[in-house]
Amino acid sequence: MNTLKDCILCSAENRWFDCWNLWIQTSQNYFNPESFRLNLNNCIQSLRTITWILQKSKSKIPYFDKWYGKWQVKMKSDPILKWAVDARNTIVKEGDLIIHSKARIAIIENWFTPPIFELDVPPFSNTNDFEKILSKRLSVKQLSLDGLLRVERRWVDSKLPKNELLDALAHTFEFLSEIILDAHESVLSAEDVKKCSWYHVYKPQHKEIHSSMSSIDWNRTIWIDLKSNEIVHVEEKKHKISKKSLKKAKERYSNCLESIIKIKESRGLIEEAKVFFKMAKEILIKDGHHSPIAILGYPNREQRLCPLKFDDRTEKKLVIYKLANIIKSTEATSLILINEVWVAPENNFKLTPNSMESSERLEALTLFAIDAKGNEYHCGIVFEKKDNKIIFKEESEFNFKKYNINMLSPIKAVWKLK
Ligand SMILES: [Zn+2]
Question: 41: domain range?
């Protein structure tokens, strides 16, 4: 990792990066109790040292005490910050925190998610034990469903029973980040701030960094394919965080590495969808294929393009849940989803699960668009590949408010909740 050397507060800023890395490692080890405990302890201890390091810069900063005094008052009145201080003392002086793990289990079939039961698992039981418990509790019928089993785990400390642990750490991290940011804006000279790379990277992206940390339920959820009884993953790229990779690393949904475009004026969902579909057809002609992509729209007219990757229906389901999770933690108000599918003439070229098995199946490019207001739009075009050329056939367009795009119901549920 590159170290920051160009600011008076560089030591605190380097520690800030350490804390962020440790938080991510803690979240990545949510289902490995021993690694989770180790990373949790390290993260809590490192968070605590940020304020100590800040105070060491005191001699270089005029009016430090007056400025820092205000933050000390705020920190003392924040129950989670207070917990973090006590937790660090416990770890250093007494040993591990007394943490508990709880699990909520739901069977996901046909996009609807009735939780079938909730169960507590003993702390430090690992994922394998977990599956054994599940197979004892679930009937053969439930286990042979063509669906996904969602297992959501939650770690809590006995001294902070109402808050999930990663949430509590993310709150602490955000609070400490605000202190470092305020130091730049309230006590450092403009000259010093100019030299600071942390400030110029963090400031424009701080909202997204912290919102990505608040959408942690994705990290504490595993998905099991009920047919194969195997854990299903959405492909993830591991990346190490440095200030150079900050922009990429902020988005933990790394199969959704995104680019942001800003459109001049909103044309409304359907008009936008049509523009994207036209572009998609051109891409298909040029490249011979179209990789799945999601386009998220925001009220400030920003649009994020998220390339997706899924190889089968189960993975596609999971990607939809991942998108729902992104939407939950951001202000996104619309979604356009473009991908290739199999359709069959006997099903009238409509999207049906059995089209894939049809001997006369054909490929189609489809687009689904929905927004938070309840608008839905769907269009598609059947195509054939002949001599490396794309030949377009039947084109269909559906613009329906009543028609329910089942596949996207997890996303609709998020907007409904909001
Ligand atoms: Zn700085």
Answer: 10-97+163-210+242-249
